[in-house]
Write a structure and sequence with these properties.
It holds the Pfam family HTH_3. It comes from Flavobacterium aureirubrum. InterPro entries: Cro/C1-type_HTH, Lambda_DNA-bd_dom_sf, Tscrpt_reg_HipB-like. By secondary structure, the chain is mainly α. The protein has a single domain, classed as lambda repressor-like DNA-binding domains (434 Repressor (Amino-terminal Domain)), CATH 1.10.260.40. The chain is built from five helices and no strands. It has helices at about 1-20, 25-30, 35-40, 50-55, 70-75.
């Protein structure tokens, strides 16, 4: 689970920088708190999905179900 959050955190940070936004600007535009943006970019593993989607929507994305290899999980 942590790996997926890290991927989201890397994505959000890269998109924020690509769009020349500061963390406070991103928080304001997404309607979330600055602390939330910092936690998201640091890969905190307990974040509200609705707030993550608020941030991701700025970049045309949202969280969704991803099919996993069940055999890989059982090893």
């Amino acid at each position: 689970m942590k790996e997926n959050l890290n991927n989201i955190s890397v994505y959000v940070k890269a998109k924020r920088k690509q769009n020349k936004l500061t963390q406070p600007e991103l928080a304001l535009k997404a309607g979330v708190g600055l602390r939330f943006v910092r936690d998201l970019e640091q890969g905190k593993n307990t974040l509200r999905m609705d707030k993550v989607n608020d941030v991701l929507r700025l970049f045309g994305e949202e969280l969704g179900v991803v099919q996993m290899n069940r055999e890989k999980l059982l090893k």
